[in-house]
């Protein structure tokens, strides 16, 4: 067909005049009215300038098309080919198993295992490794392809053998989130939250593997093009004795229930090495169901051993006694009369024995003052030493600072002074503040771990760094890491003064002392009771001890929040635990 012959855009004046219009007569042409009225008038309306505009628009359109085609194929050709390949080839992460965690005796505490999930549309079911292998052999489902029954996906599940008993020691894991700081090579998998899982995450996490797969147009796996295998994380060996840990956990739970308290802490160390043998914080949490504890007002995720801060009460008198002797303000022969009570201005300072029973201890020396926990003696001692000597001794013993334990987010506690009070309360430091500090009250705040570190010092005469891990495994034996005892300080006080205070701690758990639950124990201990008063509610109950008195093997500190008297509430917990410990030896 001749397009020009039948298109009105190619009609000219001669045709319209009837010179040659396919032998049509003018009258016939005039009758072919298709809505324009008269074809002569229609043709005249299309002058040459309008034809030029039409051709120009066509040229511009074609030109833009060729420019775009040039940009896609020549200028950005390589980039766009890569994009096409990326839509066909995908790089997937292979989640590694985390390293195992063992106790000091080789008991398995935490381990990871692979689980297999069969996914078909919205249905997900867990299957065994054996079933996964059979389905893949029959081409019904696989990790690298989607079969008739669906696709198999492999996941890593972390399991904790002792659950809540070791929750604050081990912590837990969860899937890596965008805000977590990890290298690009470790962009998937699990990350440690709290406890050992967090502190040693870089050792436990292993190496993420990579798998290069080809997919079809629907995104289904076709084949594996390459694979870089994952590597299991390194295993850790803890200083924890899991059998002792269970005894401590159960004993604390029982005594918390008796005292109508829900919150407490127990820390046990080997004072010779700083090895943590047991660490329990209550309430605890279920590592397999973290969501259940998120709204608990009792703060189950708080590790009260390392993060809880408390006025230490009379257990701090150990520090005040050492400060008094070292400063020369008193000697082991200095006697101070227990007058029951006295006033400083209009503030009353009284001994607990006088307030409770109306009794007085008469003239007492430092060893008896420790054994009887005599407040009057320590008030008068603080008047002699002043704040500086007491605070300086506390700093030497690690208070107001982190112990360095290998757990995250340890608290500093609070060791106040004049500057602190002025900056926080806009008030000056008074003598009464020093007196309150000397018996562990006022603004002073310590963690149970800090108290236990001082107790361990009194057991052996040197200060160690507490730690929970003693060995980190490696594929090659030469790459294994052994964590040994770290002595932070020794010769802190003169031997004579050290022995004097230590003797007072021994008498505290003998007839006439405050640690009455140990009067009948078959072993000798050095101890100190504490009852930390608060503005509201029952006081916190504290007890700290080391045993046996000669050649100590263990130090223990117990705190029961809102529990009442340390001797009646916290000391029985320690007695029950130490009875078991020495009974099994």
From TrEMBL:
Claim: Secreted is one of the keywords in the record: no
Residues spanning the membrane: 52-75
Top-level taxon of the source organism: Bacteria
One Gene Ontology term, aspect cellular component: plasma membrane
Localisation: Cell membrane; Membrane
UniProt GO MF annotations: penicillin binding; peptidoglycan L,D-transpeptidase activity
Membrane topology: Single-pass membrane protein
All residue ranges annotated as the Penicillin-binding protein dimerisation domain in the record: 151-224
Residues of the Penicillin-binding protein transpeptidase domain: 264-579
GO biological process, one term: regulation of cell shape
UniProt keyword list: Cell membrane, Cell shape, Cell wall biogenesis/degradation, Membrane, Peptidoglycan synthesis, Transmembrane, Transmembrane helix
PANTHER family, A to Z: PEPTIDOGLYCAN D,D-TRANSPEPTIDASE, PEPTIDOGLYCAN D,D-TRANSPEPTIDASE MRDA
Name of the protein this chain belongs to: Penicillin-binding protein 2
Provenance organism: Candidatus Curtissbacteria bacterium RIFCSPHIGHO2_01_FULL_40_12
